[in-house]
Write a structure and sequence with these properties.
Layout: H1 2-14, H2 30-41, H3 60-67, H4 71-77, E1 84-88, H5 92-103, E2 113-117, H6 123-128
Parallel strand pairs: 1-2
């Protein structure tokens, strides 16, 4: 078996380099691509452990650009676009946006918090919600 392995290594080392395909980012499995996109976004901790909003807003522009490169990177990074959503219940546009995000099959998976602005309502209604 050792002779077979050493002859295989010798044969591989004598191959011309164009026959040996160079590796690229897209050769990585999806799980690692998702981690790489998470680091580009700025996520340094494990998901679902904290809702520190300021840490996750740094790389949104980078994620938007990564999504434009190819379909595979788009699928690996789309869930990182929106970490939290701010809703103002007095504006129909805000509620419509929440509905569109909740119906999107990929982006809705990345939402970790929905913050509702209750500044125009009474304290009783705010505590009831």
């Amino acid at each position: 078996m050792d002779d077979l392995c050493s002859s295989a290594r010798t044969e591989f080392n004598t191959m011309p380099l164009p026959l040996v395909r160079p590796h690229s980012l897209l050769d990585l499995p999806d799980e690692i691509l998702i981690k790489v996109c998470g680091y580009a976004k700025g996520c340094r901790s494990l998901p679902n452990t904290t809702l520190d909003y300021s840490r996750y807003t740094d790389g949104t522009r980078d994620i938007r650009n990564v999504r434009l490169t190819c379909r595979r990177l788009c699928a690996a990074s789309s869930h990182l676009l929106l970490r939290d959503i701010m809703i103002d219940c007095t504006l129909p546009v805000s509620i419509k946006r929440l509905k569109e995000i909740s119906l999107h099959p990929v982006i809705r998976m990345g939402v970790r918090a929905v913050r509702v602005n209750m500044k125009f309502y009474s304290a009783e209604l705010a505590t009831d919600v």
